[in-house]
Amino acid sequence: MRLSSLLIIAMTFFAAAVVSLVAANFSVKLIEESSEIGVRDALDDAGMTWAEVEADGLQVTLAGIAPTEAVRFKALTTAGSIVDAARVLDEMEVEAQAAIAPPRFSAEVLRNDSGISIIGLIPTTTDRESAIARFSDIAGDANVTDLLEQANYPAPEGWEDALAFALSAMAQLPRAKASIEAGRVSITAIADSAAAKAAMENKLNRSLPPSVELVLDIAAPRPVITPFTLRFEMDGDGARFDACSADTEEARIRILAAATRAGVTGTARCTVGLGVPTPRWSEAVEKAIRAVKDLGGGSIAFADADITLVALPGSDQSDFDRVVGELENSLPEVFALRSKLPKVLDPNEGPPEFTATLSPEGQVQLRGRLSDVALRELADSYAKARFGSQNVYTAARIVEDLPADWPPRVLTALEALAALNNGSVVVTPDSLSVVGNTGNPNASTEIASLLAGKLGEGAEYNIGVVYEEKLDPVLGLPTPEECVAEIGEVLTTGKINFEPGSATIDASALGIMDQIAEVLKRCGDLPLEIQGYTDSQGREVMNQSLSQSRAESVLNELRARRVLTGTFTAKGYGEANPIADNDTEAGREANRRIEFRLISSDTGDASSQTALESTEQSSDTDDQTSQEGPNDE
Questions:
Q1: In the beta sheet, which residues pair with residue 357?
Q2: Which of 38, 203, 251, 414 could pair covalently with 246 via S-S, beta carbons 3.0-4.6 A apart?
Q3: Which residues, in sequence order, are CB contacts of 601 under 8 Å at separation 6+?
Q4: What is the pTM of this model?
Q5: 464 & 559 share domain
């Protein structure tokens, strides 16, 4: 009986345990289902149907791919509002975003007397320290302000070339701003003169890599013209300007339009400068040119506010009076008009004259009539001071009864002649004529200003000066290819010989070196490689050394002749690159040579443009000593 009671009690406890276990399991299932359903409904209501919900006991796991990090966080917050946030496990992922586009890399460089400032965004692949060091070298003692930022992206195509070109350009421009982008550089600068501007543009364009686009805005100050001069002439040879000045671009266009209506053909030149006597300058010029056209010919000359009108000899007196009267009444008040109707001269009457000629070679001859010995000595001394004492030949004779103003007219003529590359001046009692060629595009205006200032009001003069681009010291510079071609022409007449087995240039070749130096002095900065070659006899290492020494000897000879060689390099190639068969003496002779070769600006390698020169007729190394090195014969 006692055993049965204990069994009953044990069974009761067991049954209670089973009932409790079943109830607990049911409660957990109920909590899981209610949590999962509640969270899922809340997420669906929030539009986050992508989220997957799974309950495991008291924990609720969120899975799925959220479109953004913000949406993922919102899903966690929504789930935490239904169940305890500590029960929520985050196994969600965020959808991969598209790669962020690289930023636009650019830099601004400003250089002035205070130093250099650099600001912008550059890629981390750019050697920033090297670029700043280069700017510091350019600035010298001035400050370098570094405001550059970097972004961890690869450099776009053309960026490094643009930055390298901008560094080179800023080294040449003391006052400038450069804007750098991938494949593009914009430069704004100030030049001291129009010639300096042309030189800057020429130099920058020559050094521009092919992968970089260059935009230039170089300003040059307008020249000061004093007196402010203009001279228009119309005769049997047509209508033309001997000198033309304008105060604005609009005035220049207006004056040239008036000249075109009067018969000027082709491209006329008119200088825009400072010093105009009145803003109504172009109005007065336009009326004066129309007056010359109405007369059928003649000349009109302006020197500031003084105007001189000279009709053609034999013009109708009534027409002359009418045109002059109309012009006088229509000119702005500041202008004063002088008019002249020359008489028809007897063609057999020879007026006294003085003539000076300047040849293209620089030789000057003084001929004609001078008033006394003192004037002849003065003219001779003046010409020698201007053109060189060894270049002047004087053959003028002394004549009495010349005009009292003959000495200043002669000296003024010589001063005008000095503005030409070649030409002549003729002085007569009534006029002064200057004709010739020049490389200065403003020479006519400068000569007209000189004559108007020195000869006085109402003086008659004639200017027939022609601008030739080949004489322009800036635009007339030969291209690198033309320079190498000229060197090649020099080398067709002689050879650069060396002493046998040596790098010493033979005395017979010094004349050739003189000619090459004269060519290079006119070429400016030229990226040139002087290359030395030998034949194949002898040891290769000795031939390499000999060719290097010979190339350096040529470079040193050019330096001794005051050639700027900062852009030159000397390199020996030994027996490489033969141009003929080394098995024959003629072939070996051809292979022993010096070449002058252009260096490509974009790669730094020597280009195909070359001037070639064989060095000497004796071999570089002796057949009997080919294993020992060059011979000494």
A1: 365, 424
A2: 251
A3: 206, 207, 208, 209, 527
A4: 0.48
A5: no
Beta bridge partners of 234: 239, 298
Joined together, the tokens standing for residue 17 give 């345990």
Structure tokens at 452: 């108007």
Please list the residues that pair with 433 across neighbouring strands: 426, 462
* 464 in the same domain as 437: yes
Q: Which segments of the chain have a pLDDT < 70?
A: 1-4, 10, 13-31, 96-101, 344-351, 473-477, 601-633
The Cα–Cα gap between 54 and 32 comes to: 9
Q: How far apart are CA 91 and CA 83, in angstroms?
A: 17
The CA–CA distances, whole Å, from 491 to 337, 487, 515, 632 equal: 62, 6, 9, 26
Helix (H) or strand (E) holding 200: helix 194-206
Q: Identify the pLDDT of residue 389.
A: 87
| CATH number of the domain that residue 556 is part of | 3.30.1330.60
Q: Name the CA radius of gyration of the chain, rounded.
A: 45
Q: What is the pLDDT of residue 490?
A: 86
Find the domain containing 45 and state its range.
Answer: 25-94
Asked if residues 302 and 280 have their Cβ atoms less than 8 Å apart, the reply is: no
- Quickly list DSSP for 299-363: EEEEETTEEEEEEPTT--HHHHHHHHHHHHHHS-TT-EEEEE-PPPPPTT-----EEEEE-TTS-
pLDDT tens readout for residues 469-516: 777 766 666 778 888 888 888 888 877 878 877 888 888 888 888 988
